[in-house]
Structure formats: structure tokens, C-alpha cells
């Protein structure tokens, strides 16, 4: 968990504790005990509705994170497929394609990935994709075997470019502001309802409220940390491209 998340949790719990103290001081528990039954019925409905909303957002954020991770591995896999096809193509085109695939992987890892934390992409990586496409499309097969290699190269290139577009689209995906407003307002309403209950044991009441508040705010911090797949504690690393580069033989030279 990041320091910002830790301070959010701590600050929320301190604020809730202060609110409990104020309520206990100015609205004694005998006044609130009279309405425990009614407040409990309403609180059950509010709690269920907020739990459904919270669970929906957590699942959606997790699925988005998992999809983004799968996209990076798909892009790297298609790039690796293009590299191996290039090694079967005649020189000098084959060697040039090998170099271009390696340059693209290194550019994505070292230049584009840091930019993605700021919701940006690398123009250099985009130009390398254009260069790969130009190299593949300029090739004229010289026989049945080369026709098969050419078709495979085109398929790998198109699938890799499609995965790249999907990854770049995920750079801007996050929880909408309106949904964040609903989550925060729902949290305040749910926690606020617990102040309406009256218990003779102030310590027990305060402890229960703080535990509920902690559970809610931790859930919101988890959503915040996983909101953007390429930033935060749970951010996706360019592991797929690292594996691709680590397991390849050196490129041929012309």
C-alpha cells in the first residue's frame, strides 16, 4: 500500500473517532437507544445497497486490471512470433525485421512504460510499428514456403498492432468521477448511520464503528490503487517484454 493510501485510512479513522466523540458528548446514548430498531432496519437496507455497489466496482476494477495484464502478454507473444518468422525469412529483410522487433520491445519497456504512468504513449514506439508494417508489406514471397512465412508475419504483425491499440486504450481507463462520488457519498452515509445507534458501552460502540469504517475505507483505497492498471502499488510491469528479450538468440546481421 502506498503512503497516500495509508494516510487516507489513518485520517478517515481519526475523523470518524472525532465524530463519535462529538455525537456521544452532545447526543447521549439514552436518546439514541429509543430509535435503535428503526435505525437498524434502515441501516440494513443502506448497508446492502452500498455493499453491492462496492463489490461491483471492486470486481470491475480487478477484471480491468487482469485484462490489461493479458493484453501486454498477448502483444509480447505476437511480437515474439514475428521475430521467429523473421529469422526464417531471407536476408537482408529477415535481419532487418529481427532488429526492428527488438527495438520495439526495448522502446516499449524503457521509454513507453514510464510514460504510461502519466497516461501517455511513445511516438517513437508508434513509428517503429509503422516501420515493421512497411518492412513486412514490402516483401514479395519467392515461393510456397515464403508465402506461408509472409502470411504468418502479416498475421503476427496485425495481432501485435491490435494488442498495442488495446493496451493504449487501457492507459486512459479508470473509475468514472461520478462513480467515485457515489462510492464516497455511500461510504459517508453508511458510516454516518452507525452514529444513530445508542449503546450504553461507549467503547464497544466506538470500536464497532471504527471497524466498519476501516473495512470501507480499505476497500476504497484498494479500488484507488487498482484504478489505473499501469500505476500504483498493483501496477502492471513490462514482464512479458522482459521475458521476450531474455529468451531470444542474438539477431542476425546482414
Please explain how this structure is put together:
- Helices cover 78% and strands 0% of the residues.
- The protein has helices at 3-26, 29-33, 36-86, 93-116, 123-137, 144-170, 177-194, 202-226, 239-246.
- The protein starts with a helix and ends in an 8-residue tail after the last helix.
**H/E element sequence:** HHHHHHHHH
What is the rounded distance between the termini? 50 Å
Rg on CA atoms, Å: 27 Å
Q: Which range best describes the helical content: under 10%, 10-25%, 25-40%, 40-55%, 55-70% or over 70%?
A: over 70%
User: How does the major sheet shape up?
Assistant: none
Share of residues in strands = under 5%
Oligomeric status of the shown chains?
single chain
Count of beta strands: 0
Instruction: State the helix count.
Output: 9
Shape: rod-shaped
Structural class from helices and strands?
A: mainly alpha
Runs in which pLDDT lies below 50 for 5 or more consecutive residues are: none
pLDDT average, as an integer? 87
Question: How is this structure best summarized?
Answer:
The protein is mainly alpha-helical and 254 residues long. The chain has helices at residues 3-26, 29-33, 36-86, 93-116, 123-137, 144-170, 177-194, 202-226, 239-246.
